[in-house]
Amino acid sequence: MPTFSIITVCYNEAAHIRETLDSIVSQTCKDYEWIVVDGGSTDGTKDILEQYADHFSWWCSEPDKGIYNGMNKGVKHATGEYVIFMNGGDCFCDEHVLKDMVKSGITADVIEGKAADKDTGIIIQGYQADIAQKLMKDGICHQSAFARRELLLKYPYDESYKIAADWKFWIQSLLRDNGSYQYIDRVIATIDTHGITYSQFQRNLQERDMILSEFESDAVLSPIAHILRDYNYLTHNTLVQYAVFLDQHSPKGYQLVRKIAKRVVKLVK
User: Which domains does the chain have, with CATH numbers?
Assistant: First the structure.
């Protein structure tokens, strides 16, 4: 059984898929299997994948029901101890990522490192000791996180959601099941922040609210769900609505808020 199962899900990524593939092929640690799930691309992605097919443990190119359907499909074919998703457009930050993970002595159910914006190099998410607070503020980038395969089999991604199913998985595996969590102070991946999670912010919040509604009857998660909902409303919805108002009615005020936010982020870091 390999230590790592790398799963790449893609659809019409001909412009970017090669850099993703090269970042995996170049890993100096070879203790991994590689599973590729293409959603039936029509832009030449499949032709590129065929050039790398000798490196794949299993792959397919066929229509699916969305990214989470593809991710679940990949997990079903995985045999590794830990799974990481490196989807089309995302890359390991360098060739020594997997080797350094092994050297770090990974033992937890979920191990997270840093993710950086591919275009700017800015770290997307930093360290947060309290995992509940981390999930309140945002979540965990699946491109920079390794999860035990057993957890992904126990809690498959809920395909009724289009954006926030991974957030639901983190809550179930880390808060409901009290799974162990380990942070590695290292950049794991560079990610494409133009993806659906980042471009449809409001829908992401709506889906998270729907997920929290599911947990209201859960004996373990009910109190956590109420806290998360209050936090999401106060820190996300209200501020986003205020920023949108300023953008529409006071461009100078909007720019001032942006400058203040950037300074706050620098102070927090």
Answer: 4-194 (3.90.550.10)
